[in-house]
Amino acid sequence: MFTWTSRELNAEQSEAVLLPGSVFLVACPGSGKTRALTYKIAYELSRLESDRQFIVAITYTHRAADEIQERIEDLGVDTSRLWIGTIHSFCLEWIIKPYGIYAPELAHGYRVIDQHEREKLLERLCAPYASQRVSHYDCDYFFTTDGYYLGCPNAGKHAIIHRVLVEYFRILAENRQIDFELILWHASQLIDLNPAISVLLSKLFALILVDEYQDTKQIQYSILGSILRAGAGATRLFMVGDPNQAIYGSLGGYPIEIGELRRLTEVRIAEQQLSQNYRSSSRIIDYFGNFNVYNTAIAAAGDGRVYPSLVSYDSGVTRDDLVHEIVRLIRHNVETLGIPPSEVCVLAPQWLHLASMTRQLVVNMPDYQFDGPGMVPFARDIENFWYKLSRLALTEPSPSLYVRRLRWAGEVISEMKDAGIETSRLSRKSFLRECNAIPIDEDNGLAYLRRFFATLFERLGIQISDFAQLQEHHQAFFESSESRIAKLEAEGVDAIGDIAFFRKVFQNRTGITVSTIHGVKGAEFDVVIAYALLEGMVPHFNDADGDTSAQKLLYVVGSRARKNLHLFSETGRKRGRYNVYVPTRMLAACVFNYDDV
Ligand SMILES: Nc1ncnc2c1ncn2[C@@H]1O[C@H](COP(=O)(O)OP(=O)(O)OP(=O)(O)O)[C@@H](O)[C@H]1O
Question: Domain UvrD-like helicase ATP-binding, which positions (predicted)?
């Protein structure tokens, strides 16, 4: 049986892991919820009695799934009975692929389109409404079990947006395509109309774990609820998250309350807390505690709790001077305080500001490297076959990546099989060997990938054009990547098409991270510098409950920092023709003894 010491898990974490029934775990930032989740999976895998049952873990991102799976493997636990991935992958793998034949819209095949293709189509459909100022940005929507809802708070635009979406859904159906929201909708419909699916799944799943529950949507809770209800206690739930960090409200995410969860699942659920923060100094914790909406318990427990943190806030700097201030702070932290550049993170609420800031930082600090995790130059639709293969094309063989690449090779082979290719003579290892043996001298990222794919298939003796699905994915992958690069170039990001940029996507961070606030979910840095903390951006003008939403964003920003935190509400950013943005109200109202740096 899998065990651990008190050095690995504290008493709160151990208790939550050992509880035999279902658990709802509310965890403060930096309290090791990922660690608790990882150990829970390892513990339950080691106790699994039937070899026909699975442990299912739902994570917010694919990267989180990879990391957790690897940590469990490092703990020496067999993961063959573990399924781990995002809710969308879960719905595809366990509901849509096996039961899609029962949905007329899916029965004849379908292709999942990525965010970028969705945006492109909506952009086209919105074009006739430019004079009414409706753009694809207004067209965010999400499904609940009742149908779709619009994200746009401006009711005056709703009639047009509905018209655009009707056309959007029609075009998708005609082309047998589904987007990410439709994955959830179809899965939910299939489960609703065919109760046997939930019964079957509940027999297969001993335990369902959910990470970051605070950003889960009603339709997702409902899908999981159906399976748990069908299991009548035989399938257990382990749900972890932090309601204070719920920052996807405009897309329908919300932190469910324990009472609602119990009603929905009809199972007994124990409520537990993690309150020891191992990440930040006491001063940082005191600071972000000002934005604690749910009054959750939080105590400094890490070795760095006594660190003499700097917490600064500048609402006087002008927009033009901002970059110099940020450069000064980066240099102070790195060159005076000795913090490694890879431990510095620069945050802003929107990509729009980050592209130009990154450019300016690169010019002002040629001696530093910058990593923009959001600047992915190729289509990252995880359901696209060629994306899956690009992960092998863009990573080098190395001992540290071996397990991960072997898993990726397995996924690619299984997709090839699904597409109708004879794969019996291919093993994961032989496939990796084929990939590793391809020499290509090419600087342009997309040209590199095209040649890599063509060479590999030639070596395998497979004609891509013989397989309609692969062909369609191939076209979608390259079209989408080309327009993504064109868009980033138009925003002024240089060299985005170079192979080096492509490879960076899969490398560990080495330079200073530049990211949106939403993009650093779950991450931690010694130093966090955030700007554009302005009403209308933080909170976003689309956010329904503005002040609460701002508090949660500020809570996320503050709680990423271990040591130092620097905040800016710069002046002089134009809002419309006559106005300027003003500081985020909740930040301006916060009384704190800030440091002069
Ligand atoms: N029992 C423990 N003892 C010492 N350090 C721990 C313990 N549990 C977790 N940590 C450390 O605390 C840090 C935060 O952990 P983790 O990233 O899992 O937190 P989290 O709860 O997911 O945070 P957030 O919700 O803010 O993203 C990590 O560096 C982790 O190694």
Answer: 6-281
Q: Residue 109 and residue 177: Cα distance in Å, rounded?
A: 9
Amino acid found at 17: V
pLDDT in tens, 54-67: 999 999 988 899 88
DSSP states of 173-233: HHTTEE-HHHHHHHHHHHHHH-HHHHHHHHHHEEEEEESSGGG-BHHHHHHHHHHHHHHTT
Over its C-alpha atoms, the chain yields an Rg (Å, rounded) of 24
Helix (H) or strand (E) segment spanning residue 239: strand 236-241
Strand ranges of the sheet holding 205-210, from the earlier edge strand across to the other edge: 82-85, 54-58, 205-210, 236-241, 22-27, 269-274
Higher pLDDT, 306 or 500: 306
C-beta neighbour count of 124 within 10 angstroms: 14
**Strand 574-575 relative to strand 579-580: parallel, antiparallel, unpaired?**
antiparallel
Question: Using a 6 Å cutoff on CB, does residue 522 contact ligand 1?
Answer: yes
**Closest ligand 1 atom, residue 27 Cα:** 21
* Complex-level ipTM beyond the 0.90 threshold: yes
CA distances from 474 to 409, 470, 505, 528 (A): 18, 6, 20, 39
The whole model's pTM is what?
0.89
End-to-end, the C-alpha distance of the chain in Å comes to 52
- Contact partners, residue 244, CB within 8 Å, separation at least 6: 28, 29, 214, 291, 292, 293, 294, 296, 552, 555
**CA–CA separation, 463 and 18 (whole Å):** 52
Query: Which residue's alpha carbon is at the smallest distance from atom 14 of ligand 1?
Result: 30
The alpha carbon of 288 and the centre of ligand 1 are apart by a number of angstroms equal to 17
Residue 296 CB less than 6 A away from ligand 1:
no
Nearest CA to ligand 1 atom 15: 32
10 pocket-lining for ligand 1 (C-beta < 6 Å):
yes
Q: State which H helix or E strand residue 124 sits in.
A: helix 115-126
CA distances from 321 to 165, 324, 325, 505, 534 (A): 42, 5, 6, 31, 16
497 and 377 Cβ atoms separated by less than 8 Å:
yes
pLDDT tens column, 388-439: 999 999 998 988 888 889 989 999 999 899 889 999 999 999 999 999 999 8
Residues 485/486/490/492 CA torsion (nearest 10 deg): 30
Residue of minimum CA distance from atom 24 in ligand 1? 29
Contact 242, 199 (CB under 8 A): no
DSSP-assigned letters across all residues of 404-441: HHHHHHHHHHHHHHHTT---TT--HHHHHHHHHT----
User: What are the φ/ψ torsions at residue 580 (nearest 5 degrees)?
Assistant: -125, 155
Measured in Å, residue 67 CA sits from the centre of ligand 1 at 14
CA distance 360 to 354: 10
Q: Cβ neighbours of residue 397 under 8 Å, at least 6 residues apart?
A: 405, 432, 436
CA 177 to chain CA centroid, Å, is 22
Is residue 562 in contact with ligand 1, taking CB distance under 6 Å?
no
Phi, psi dihedral angles at 62 (to 5 degrees): -70, -35
Asked if 46 contacts 77 with a C-beta cutoff of 8 angstroms, the reply is yes
